[in-house]
UniProtKB/TrEMBL annotation:
Coiled coil: none annotated. It catalyses: [protein]-C-terminal S-[(2E,6E)-farnesyl]-L-cysteine + S-adenosyl-L-methionine = [protein]-C-terminal S-[(2E,6E)-farnesyl]-L-cysteine methyl ester + S-adenosyl-L-homocysteine. Its main location: endoplasmic reticulum. It comes from Absidia repens. PROSITE patterns: SAM_ICMT (PS51564). The lineage of its organism: Eukaryota, Fungi, Fungi incertae sedis, Mucoromycota, Mucoromycotina. This is Protein-S-isoprenylcysteine O-methyltransferase. GO terms for molecular function: protein C-terminal S-isoprenylcysteine carboxyl O-methyltransferase activity.
Length: 271
């Protein structure tokens, strides 16, 4: 219910003003609530429209759960008739996107959006996964012996686990200081995180995604995409880290310099 108002002594007849600051805050909160209700009503019945609505969040989470569970079951029961690595790939991919949203929801609820799943990351991201799936299917069709499960698959799965663990640990360690986007301004509560996994490496989330993506190609036994992913990832992270560290230097000055000098990235050929 909207906060009530009353006539102020001496005020012109018919003009009503709020008595105190608390009533102003209550009115602001009420108006915000009404606006959110209006938007919610407009979005009723709409799904997969890209809007950050409860039904879209629930649907994304449900579909990711189905893909993850289905992929894991497929990998475990496929035997030798079908390539189990495809199931592990689907499981790893869906779990990655779910954990991205979960970490944002836990520690950055004010930044939470449907894009926090990172499913609609970029056309390049979609093209990279499409290329890896296409290579896997072509090679499996023409050269099925190339996809025989062996030591390389287990190495790939190990890299996927290491990469996912490093990225999730980074997000949980940084908490509200983590962002999917490089910030050009310093928020009042932004701190330079130097504890946890950040004590042993700079940019552990990038380290995690790098090895996760390389591990996926090793798991799928994709020799072409394995080489291309190494090139793409090195190029992408070289540029991104350079720009991000420029902003961190502006934000934290000597504190950042000291941290950077004593903490490596542990990414191949990226200092």
């Amino acid at each position: 219910m909207a906060p009530s108002t009353s006539d102020d002594d001496g005020a012109d007849g018919g003009i009503r003003i709020l008595r105190n600051r608390s009533e102003i805050d209550e009115l602001t909160e009420y108006n915000a609530f009404q606006e959110s209700r209006r938007k919610a009503k407009q979005s009723l019945g709409r799904i997969l429209d890209g809007e950050n609505t409860p039904q879209n969040i629930a649907l994304y989470g449900f579909l990711l759960g189905i893909i993850c569970g289905g992929g894991l079951v497929y990998a475990l029961v496929s035997g030798t008739s079908w390539p189990p690595q495809m199931g592990y790939f689907l499981c790893a991919l869906s779990l990655f996107h779910f954990l991205e949203y979960l970490a944002t929801a836990l520690f950055n609820p004010d930044k939470l959006a449907l894009d926090s799943f990172l499913i609609n990351h970029s056309p390049h991201y979609h093209a990279a996964h499409a290329a890896s799936l296409l290579e896997f299917m072509i090679e499996y069709y023409f050269f099925p012996s190339w996809k025989t499960v062996g030591m390389l698959n287990y190495i790939g799965l190990f890299l996927v686990i290491i990469g996912q663990t490093a990225r999730s640990t980074a997000m949980f360690s940084a908490r509200h200081n983590f962002s999917h986007r490089i910030m050009d301004y310093k928020a009042p509560d932004h701190q330079l995180v130097q504890h946890g996994i950040y004590r042993v490496m700079r940019h552990p989330s990038y380290f995690g995604f790098y090895w996760w993506a390389i591990g996926v190609q090793c798991l799928l036994l994709n020799p072409v995409c394995f080489g291309l992913f190494i090139y793409w990832l090195h190029h992408f992270f070289s540029e991104r880290i350079a720009y991000e560290e420029y902003t961190l230097l502006r934000f934290f000055g000597d504190e950042w310099k000291s941290y950077r000098n004593r903490t490596p990235t542990r990414l191949p050929f990226i200092q």
